[in-house]
Structures are given as C-alpha cells and as structure tokens.
Amino acid sequence: MNRKGKKKEEINRNLKDFEGHSLIPERDIEAPPILKITGLGIDFGGLTAVDDFNMALGRTEIAGLIGPNGAGKTTIFNLLTKVYQPTRGKFLLDGKDTSGMNTVKINRAGIARTFQNIRLFDKLTVEENVKVGLHNDINYSFFSGIFRTPAYRDGEKEAHERALDLLDIFNMADLANAPAGSLPYGAQRRLEIIRALATDPKVLLLDEPAAGMNPSETSELMETIRDIRDQFEIAILLIEHDMNLVMGICEAIAVLNYGKIIAKGTPAEIQSNPVVIEAYLGKQKGGAEDGQ
Fold first, then answer.
1. What integer pLDDT is reported at residue 286 of this predicted model?
2. CATH code given to domain 118-200
3. pTM for this model (two decimals)
4. Domain 1-110+203-210+217-292 classified CATH 3.40.50.300?
C-alpha cells in the first residue's frame, strides 16, 4: 500500500474511533481521539446516576456537556477524574485504558479539572497556588526539602519560573505575591484554571467556569478558553449553564438528561433539537402555548 493509501486508511480508522460523535474538528481527523469513553455508568445503591455514556474527544477539541440540574454532568467529571470508580464501562486516555487508576494516577496521566465551587488555598499566595499544581514535575525528595539541598533549591527555582510563566500568559504575574483569597471572583476562576494547567494535562475539564461571572467576564473567559486550547494544544470539555458561552465556543455538544445522552451535535443542531428543547423547557401541551 502506498503512502496515500496508508494515510486514508489511518483517517478512516480514526473516524471510526469518533463514531457517534457529531462533529470532528478538521484539525483532529488524522489523529485518534485523546479521550474515548465507552458505556460508562455508575449506580449508587439502587439509583442509576449515569448510564451508557459514550463520547470521543478530539485532541484539540472544545466540547460541551450540558443538561438540566441533576442530569449527572458533574458525576461524569467525577468518573473521569476517578473520584468515583465506574460500575460499568471504561475510558481510554490517549489510547491507554484507565481502569484501576486512582485520582492521583489519572491526573499524572493527563486529566485535570476545575470545580463548580472554586477550590483555592485562600491564604496561600497566587504563586504558591500554582506551585501546588506543579507537583507532577517536582524532582527533589522529601529529605532534600528538609535539608535544603542543591536539588531542592534548583527545583524551587524551576517551579518559581514555571509558575510565573503560567501567570504571565494570563496577565497575572503582577499578582504572584497576593493572597489568593484577596483576588476578585473572575481572577480566582482564572487562577484555578492556571493551577490545573500546571499539571500539564492532555484534557482539561471545566465545571461551570462562568458561574457567577458577569457578561464582560464571561466574554473574557471565552477568549481565555480558546487561547488555552491554541497555546497548550489540549482538549477541553466543559460543563456550563450559560448557553451563550456554550454555543459560542464549543465545537460539539452532548446533552445529558437523567444520566443518559439524549443528543449530540454541533451548536446549531443542538439549538434546534426538539428533544433538547423539551428536556430544558418541558413538553408543551396543546392550546395557546403551542403558538407561543
């Protein structure tokens, strides 16, 4: 088989990996998905919280996971970060089966997240919060830290420089010595994202990143998310209730209701999908309401 034929075969194989996903960014077609989720589900006692969740995520894709409150969105993030172990199903990260991994191992493998409620160390400085995220790259030992050996000093210098570089990308280097708890709300959100990026992820999970933001901050956040994808060349999966943000930034969207995917597609397809509209607004009954 010639090179052109092999390339076509590889693309077809990668397309199969994305089967069931409504949109593949053109730039990602020639590579296998960074995240492939198959039949993922979890039960709590007799309650099924998530069932038969399937998704493939392109290597530099920005995708959205939306649905009514209680649909199971954060539970999926908890499954992907191994806060919960699935009752059934599995997912591959960069082609590697994550079965049996715990939260620490999945983070080292390449999945990082933020939380719906900001979880910063308020009394630590901005720089110190970022350094917490650099734990995967710390090379000195516990004893090196106690005795302040050259290895420790070199490691601290490297962490300091790396933290400032990350802060500088988001125009926050001048706040490095400020207590994290003193930052405005929008800046705290950015700091949490920076801390997640410090772990050098392949997939970044953002849980309601625009929660509590005003329209101006949300618009700035949209640009920040695009910049992260472009500069770090990573995939981003976000949960969000702000539909302006979701429709304005996501290349593909999955809609969850009662723990199951009810629709997948582009923003335009999702906006016009009657099943999605019903899940959010409820089924309208006959009469005057139908004409409204």
1. 46
2. 3.40.50.300
3. 0.85
4. yes
